[in-house]
Amino acid sequence: MQINTKRIRKLSEEQERLDGRTPLEYRNITIEPEYIPTTADGSAKVTIGDTQVIVGISTDLEEPFPDMPGKGTIVTNAELAPMADREFESGPPQEDGVELARVVDRGIRESEAVDLEDLCIEKGEKVITLFIDIHILNNDGNLLDAAALAAITALKTGTLPHYDEESGEFDREAEGRPIPLTKTPVTATGRKIGDTIVFDTTKQEEEAQDARLTVSITEDNNIVAMQKGGTEPYSQEETMETVEKVRDKTEEFRQLIEDAVGE
Amino acid sequence: MTEQEVQWFDEDGKRIDGRAKDEMRETKMKADVLEEADGSAMVEVGNTRVIASVFGPQDLHPKHLIESDRAVIKMRYNMAPFSVDDRMRPGPNRRAKEIGLVAKQALTPAIELEQFPKSGIDISMEIVESDGGTRAAGITAASLALADAGIPMRGLVSATAAGVVDDTAVLDVIGKEDKEGNADIPIATINGGDEITLLQMDGDLTPDQVDECLSLARKGCADLDEMQREALHSSLKNQEQEGGEQ
Question: How close B43 comes to chain A (CA, Å)?
């Protein structure tokens, strides 16, 4: 793969890319809501080019954290399945998988997209936990944007199972209610290759990149989470340039989500 | 036990999901569904959905696993957390390890491992949605993925399960029939023939019932074998068309 690194870097000086895209251009994006219709409480499959990600949401009843007795919880987890990439190993998530899950989680958590108080059943005793499980099937780069897009789509189309007061359990046969969402945070990642900021990198491009900056933005244009990765520094100007571009991109994503969800 | 309360067959002899006793669920197969893997396939049997991948033959790590006269298969069977109603904790458990082992043994006799000494073949199956029969669907998918990877094989391996509910043998049991019925016998065969490479059973049956289940399941495997061949044909056709455009 590294044979292309030099060429990718050289091309980026001219604002060009190996596959002919412009720096801001994404590959074809598809969003399939409710991809796991029977066993998941919410789900979506997102493909960006050859990258394929499934997110499935599960629910459980648990005790709340002592410092948040009136709030439900969100747990986000990512599985970089070995089928997705020759480099991925079986076993507990490595640092890349943990970072991926945490960055997706942060966009949702910090925007307070899910009304956690609405997930409380009995203060201090019983709350709903939402598990957001990210499953990577095929890695051709830009896992962060694909996973975040799948996660927010799964949340938007997901349902909470009916809570049966008498048994104190979920009644999964009864009709549920929508997951209480107050906002739609959307996430995009800019990557620095030399002096050019490039979006939606392929795996080859990511091997050639210097650094990346992931930004999550809500519909009211507030920035709710950022994460820099890679070893090269970002200047303030580059940071703000990325934020600006992410804002344009997330508007496009929001439209794609609405089209897929049918709002 | 709830077993007594379930009405397993209606007046027309149809099962709880409307199938005849010797009828398989609606089954779909597609080879070459992933780009990174050398071979891949998706198999859907009713609500059960499995994706399988193959990498190799390739260098084998760790080195002490190497065999001088043949390739070594590493198998992973994994259920995604959202593939079951009550979330599955990520990570391997004893059940997944055992299924990985028997699935590996079900496929091994069909692969010409001696053609690739000192190398490894990595197979993995991800269950993304389950309603019974995940190991069988996984083996069927893995065999397709092996063929898609171009690994020389003596034949394709297909798998399904037969079971008994209400003292009647039925083909391709779904989750409820498996959990609450009398028995479940998953089998795999090579080329839909009489070479059985996976055989497990749990339940309580007479020898005649076991015999009947085997006949039913073998018939199912033969049908699956044909579907596998069709899936490979159409993926080859697609690849030729794509190749022609380049």
Answer: 14
